[in-house]
């Protein structure tokens, strides 16, 4: 046994001596000067036009003068997808402005954030800020994951993240864009769900505590932004808020009330409204709300899938419901591939729901 130990010791010393002898032969240019990496810089707000900060006042959003404000707009596809397809350009934002939006929701997929590299992705978000600010549009920045973050289980690999990465994302973002009025809302997590037990077991008190930690982190850098918290069942169910609301000031709640989420029988407008009020709409009586995803496609249409299939009656219903309760909204999605789509192509030919929402948005102007 002693002999074997001596052999290992001799081999180790030989390896160490070899390493030391060859250390000086390393190419100095191959060494990364980690000690000279600069600290992240905040966005230069002097490059922006004057734009009101939007804040929370009771159960509504208001501008700098206390005038009520409602976010109304569209989702677009992730910036890294759009730049890959040659569609990431200011003219896209200009088209949305012509449709009547005052808000654009930017989904950032965790996989895209990692694969693009945060420096490259920040460059895209910087462009979005400049374009939106120039056009008088607000942005909702959304960490676009689906699953139950505390369990680390997700619906698809594109949504895979973890608590550490999520904290680091919001730390970086809130430091980068502090005091930037154009990014009005941070949507902390897109669609929390345990996928019917396939992603663990969602617990509201656990989810509440995690969101409060992230809000504290965001506020440590920037108190001018509005954190947005989603409920369970793919961001549809906010029933737990009644007993256990988020205990932080200045926040709002998100819902994704797609048409097949409400399942009354018979399916009348009154019955659907009753379901919406019970599950999520009641929150708007106390807190500001944004339906950050909504939309539909007819059965058999492009990308038709549960829960977005509808005959078209949903459109007028959801607008009537939200307007009566001063609920903000951003419809999904101003992209010809991500269903339910607003456009058929990059000539911006509107789909059925695209025509509807375009008409609604333009009516406010």
UniProtKB/TrEMBL annotation:
Q: Name one GO molecular function term.
A: hydrolase activity, acting on glycosyl bonds
Entry keywords, A to Z:
Glycosidase, Hydrolase, Signal
Similarity comment: family membership: Belongs to the glycosyl hydrolase 5 (cellulase A) family.
Q: What is its EC number?
A: 3.2.1.-
Any idea what this protein is called?
Glycoside hydrolase family 5 protein
Write down the Pfam families for this protein, in alphabetical order: Cellulase
Source species, please? Answer: Agaribacter flavus
**Domain of life of the organism in this record?**
Bacteria
Residues annotated as signal peptide: 1-23
| Glycoside hydrolase family domain: residues covered | 62-336
From the broadest rank down, the organism's phylogenetic lineage runs: Bacteria, Pseudomonadati, Pseudomonadota, Gammaproteobacteria, Alteromonadales
InterPro entries documented for this protein: GH, Glyco_hydro_5
